[in-house]
Amino acid sequence: MADAVPSLGSTPMDLDIRATRTSANMLDGLQSLLDSKECCDIVFLACEEQIEAHAVVLAASSPNFCKYLRQSSMRGLKEPSAPGHEMEELFTTVLTSPHGAAGTAGALSPVAPRAAGEGEEPQAEVPETEALSQPKEEPGMDGAGKGSDEATAEAPMEVEVEAPKPEEAAPARTAGTTSPANPTHHEKAKADKVRVQVNGLSSSEAMHILLDYIYKGSAAASWEYKATTAQVNKEILRLARCFGFAQLHEHAARWLAKGLTTENVVDRLVTCEEFGLGLLREKITERLALKPAEMMQVCSSPEITKHPRILQDLLVQVASLKKGCTEATEDAKEEKQEPKEEKPAKHDKAEREKEKHEKEKQDKAEKPDKPEKKHEKAEKPEKPSKQAEKQTGKKRKAGLPGSLDESRWFSYAV
């Protein structure tokens, strides 16, 4: 029994133990955190709306946004993001909440001096060490101890500076109030969030669709793309290109091919040209060129004159289709003319058929065998006529010689 148990030995062995699928549960958990706005550490400012999210989720889903966050943290929150990359043109990192800014400003500013009484001008500030180092002299005395008007005019003014007491420096806190230097936990959490301004959006709808795709749509096959207007779809194309989401970019590109009319086709062709959708633009122009009435309406619109390149492509497409139509008509004409030229061939067939009929007639005329056979049949001994048969019968009855009856002859023979 001991020999039957295999030994593991010294060589390493890998066991194929697959982990359970937890991606769906993780996405549901992240979505619940986003809905409840828990553990959010980044705020997007889009069209006067604050949209909270999780920076780690965005950075994990998009390497471009992760790079942007890293660079903005290295520069610091006070320095605005330098334009250059498209991500930096789209987003601008701003300061944190006003509570955090006020606390930082209060910590960096010096202690303000005590205000003068009402109706009095504020006295000049004199450092305490300088005031103490100067000797006290009586008014009207010069340096030698003698009184003079010049001495009184040149004598330094003595300023008394008192250090503020702790009770006066910090006012008493009442219940339920906090100082800017010591905010509550909720205010501190708000101050710690990174605030990012989203530039170039007409509404916050595009940002909501982007976050919905990141938290749900990137892993769900049944995710439905919902863009209400062409402007929102164009903004989503821009966001998808910045974040590097090819699938979201494809959803927005397919939206451009739906509901095409003569009013929106020019704008959609411009969008295709702006975002490098060359194949989609070619398909739209081909579909438009198949309808001459709609093509003439689009080419005559004043909006198309603003985009000469698109107008040129449409005219080239029409010219190519016209050329193809002319070639097709010429081919059809040639096909119709070819049967007329083939008429001699039909005449040859008729002549061949006539020749066949003539040969058959000649063959029938050249057959002499059948008439000869009929002649041979005619040369055979003819049957005796009825009169001859009667005469032979009479002779047989009379018993003439030479006309022996067969029955008698048979009896004699027996």
UniProtKB/TrEMBL annotation:
Biased composition (Basic and acidic residues): 330-392
Designated gene of the protein: Zmynd10
The protein, known as: Zmynd10 protein
Gene3D superfamilies assigned: Potassium Channel Kv1.1, Chain A
Lineage: Eukaryota, Sar, Alveolata, Dinophyceae, Suessiales
Record organism: Symbiodinium necroappetens
InterPro entries per the UniProt record, alphabetical: BTB/POZ_dom, SKP1/BTB/POZ_sf
Record SUPFAM superfamilies: POZ domain (SSF54695)
Superkingdom of the organism of origin: Eukaryota
Region (Disordered): 99-192, 328-414
Chain ranges of the BTB domain: 40-260
